[in-house]
Design goal:
Two copies of one chain form a homodimer.
Chain A: H1 2-6, E1 12-16, H2 23-33, E2 37-39, E3 43-44, E4 59-60, H3 63-71, E5 75-81, E6 84-89, H4 90-98, E7 102-106, H5 109-117, E8 123-129, H6 133-143, H7 148-162, E9 170-173, H8 177-193, H9 201-210
Parallel strand pairs in A: 1-7, 1-8, 2-7, 3-4, 8-9
Antiparallel strand pairs in A: 3-6, 5-6
Helix pairs in contact in A: 2-8, 6-7
Amino acid sequence: MDGRNKDNRGLILILSSPSGAGKTTLSRLLLQRHTQLSLSISATTRPQRPGEVDGKDYHFVTKDAFATMIHNQALMEYATVFGNQYGTPRAPVEAVLAAGGDMLFDIDWQGAQQIKLSARKDMVSVFILPPSMEELGRRLIARQTDDLDVIQKRMDGARQEISHWAEYDYVIVNQDIHQSLDQISAIMTAEKLRRSRQANLPDFIRGLLEG
Amino acid sequence: MDGRNKDNRGLILILSSPSGAGKTTLSRLLLQRHTQLSLSISATTRPQRPGEVDGKDYHFVTKDAFATMIHNQALMEYATVFGNQYGTPRAPVEAVLAAGGDMLFDIDWQGAQQIKLSARKDMVSVFILPPSMEELGRRLIARQTDDLDVIQKRMDGARQEISHWAEYDYVIVNQDIHQSLDQISAIMTAEKLRRSRQANLPDFIRGLLEG
């Protein structure tokens, strides 16, 4: 089984959620638990914030550089959010998948929709919901990084993001971070066991029947 | 989440495999681990063997009684194997699913195919493969319950069963029983998180957006 799986391409795991639903913490814990999982780093024209590291949090690029990436089809998806452009560089994703690793995409519904429309069979999408809007508001306030009208804007953005829940394969209500982590891990395990994803099963079966 | 799931119907989990691939042990361990999971007991016209309990291993019925069940549409599926009839009584399955429990079906490809053709959305099918035919033969011999030409017949039956692997949603190579158990558990967890299976999500989302 291990031998065959090494030859299988990896999965694209898309996590989307409104801000404050716990996606960033979940992503961090998932990357710790699953060593074969890498995080896709988005490119953005948004200004670098204090504490952010170029190449780790984002690839910070100019608007001209971003336009060039679009022109060269070097982005798998891109979108404009609050006036800033965000996109997913294609090359690192293809390299990880070809080596049998999995790629975690922390992107919004616009990005997920573009990747879905490209009809990629290696994509699995999970939408993370907050248990309630009150809880979402509390989490946004607890961060203390945003002032109140930014929080209001994010609550409106959250409602818009949530309205796209029906475009995802799986939906998780994040009440307990460890339960949600187990649930996403189960989704990854299950998706790799799908008959249609196990590229080398026909050869294994042939060997079995001839053996 | 718990509250909403209680209102969801359960899953039909179909496990098929050639004899000797470990399905019976896996089923027993699954039932121990998942208390919400019940085993569907097949009806059969096959004679009761020493040690078998009526109503636990099978419902042992006459050919006439079996024919009546077919006539009354009281069976979800039925098939003839080695000259004996086997079928799945419908009523207990519907009762368990309606109460939010899950039902485990230990049936062959013929039964799985009939349930699949009925287009049940609550069905998830898993095919269990042996790591090799040599290992399958060793397991059949180790049982010491069958003589050699029965074993030969079962090996031929195994090849025929295996030839239907492509009709299943998931395929597991049973190299390690505990790993296989974890994999089937992950499949159950993941399938319940599918957006399309969470019947009450639209109401939850409405509440979220209006809240």
